[in-house]
Specification:
By secondary structure, the chain is of the alpha/beta class. It has helices at residues 19-43, 50-71, 77-110, 118-138, 181-192, 214-220, 247-263, 309-312, 330-336, and strands at residues 145-153, 164-168, 197-200, 229-231, 266-268, 272-278, 281-287, 322-325, 342-347, 372-375, 380-383, 400-408. The chain contains nine helices and twelve strands.
Length: 413
């Protein structure tokens, strides 16, 4: 009954192993075995001591053990963290060593040259990658950027010219365990920007409302703005990755997430809207439940009903204009761009797959709108790459909140 997505941390069904996760697991086992075999093959020539063998094999053995536990249904964030951290910190550098070393040896034979120092070069680059990975796992996940964004439309009501909105997305509180220090950093940064409105575009949790500990509630309750704090639910907030035994328990867990957000002073928009009024002008703030790209449903799987823009905008006159909150940016092209009332859409979900190098992210291979500003004939979309994630790793796509200024004028990409 579990619904899955690209950023889910749990792929196992109590009845059978998710075939997607099984394929991923087999691929990871193959990569680990390949990198360890080649590293051992090359380093053996250097007559390394016992501690060298421990460094090569022990992280992989620990990773493989926890990967097997996940395959067998162990729903532990610690196991997932160990698997992802070990692969990022040890397997990836060993793969770099393997590619450079094996490639250099192959080219040497092809051009009849003896590249004696290729292992040294490969080891050097592997060490650089390891240092970068260590930074991304330890420091990169705890730095917080503030992206300053301008969204413009000539149809924006005059009184909302210069209106300031702070967007937060994808906190994934379960990834912080009980440490609220970074969450408090986020809250302090939001309040220091003195926005008119604060919005959260989904994924408060990884898989369960139990992740929202009292310390997180206390911290997130401290965000304030004159026009309030509003939120929508992301795919993880529907708690379908936990493996609850019944649809009723999934619904109860989702309702608990909603109640927790409400207890923090947030207003949760579930296919509904509110009116923001300034000096006689009105801007409609609307929010939908998660609308995701359709995919085949597994037997017995519970999939929450998709959100509805039509329902959210029911009763909104054609003369009014809308700021829309949604979680998955795929929703924008599916339904939003055809409605001329929606001037601006704010979304999250993608995390830029946790990697961004300049204007490039591997997320672009699977998501046409993965991060930043996008313009259509009728409106604009801004996709936040978010604050947290199930995987505690960020390279270039640093944790960020957005300070969005609305302007009355022509849209610029």
């Amino acid at each position: 009954m579990n619904r899955r997505s690209a950023d889910s941390i749990v792929f196992f069904d109590s009845q059978n192993v998710n075939p997607v996760f099984f394929k991923i697991a087999i691929s990871l086992f193959a990569l680990i075995a390949l990198s360890d075999w080649w590293t051992f093959h090359e380093m053996r020539k250097k007559r390394i001591n016992f501690f060298g063998y421990v460094l090569i094999f022990l992280p992989s053995l620990v990773c493989a053990l926890h990967l097997i536990l996940l395959l067998c249904g162990e729903r532990s964030m610690y196991s997932f963290r160990i698997v992802s951290g070990t692969i990022l910190l040890f397997t990836v550098p060993k793969l770099v060593f393997t590619i450079i070393s094996a490639g250099g040896n192959r080219l040497g034979r092809l051009f009849h040259r003896d590249w004696k120092h290729i292992q040294g070069v490969a080891f050097f680059f592997a060490c650089i990658v390891a240092v970068v990975q260590f930074y991304c796992i330890t420091v990169g996940i705890n730095r917080l950027d503030v992206n300053r964004v301008t969204l413009a439309s000539p149809l924006l009501p005059k009184s909302f010219d210069g209106y300031r909105v702070v967007q937060i997305s994808d906190l994934h509180l379960g990834s912080y365990f009980s440490d609220d220090s970074f969450v408090r950093t986020v809250v302090d940064s939001v309040n220091s920007l003195h926005p008119d409105l604060i919005v959260f575009t989904g994924d408060l949790v990884n898989e369960s409302p139990d992740e929202v500990l009292p310390e997180f509630v206390n911290a997130l309750s401290c965000m304030h703005a004159p026009d309030g704090v509003y939120s929508v639910l992301g795919n993880h907030d529907f708690c379908v990755y936990k493996g609850f035994p019944s649809e009723q328990e999934v619904r109860r867990a989702t309702d608990k997430v909603v109640r927790l957000e409400q207890s923090m002073g947030w207003e949760v928009l579930r296919d509904e809207h509110r009116l923001l009024v300034r000096d006689g002008d009105t801007l409609v703030l609307a929010g939908t439940d998660n609308v995701a790209k359709p995919r085949p449903r597994r037997e017995g799987e519970y999939v929450p009903p998709a959100g509805s823009l039509k329902k959210a905008l029911r009763g909104v006159p054609e003369s009014h204009h809308v700021l829309l909150l949604t979680h998955d940016p795929w929703h924008w092209r599916r339904e939003v761009t055809s409605d001329p009332r929606v001037l601006f859409t704010l979304a999250g979900h993608t995390h830029a797959l946790h990697v961004r190098l300049g204007n490039f992210s591997p997320a672009a291979w699977i998501m046409p709108e993965w991060g930043g500003k996008y313009v259509s004939r009728n409106g604009m979309l801004y996709v936040s790459t978010g604050v947290g994630g199930s995987v505690k790793y960020r390279l270039g796509a640093w944790p960020a909140i957005e300070l969005i200024t609305l302007r009355r004028g022509h849209a610029v990409e």
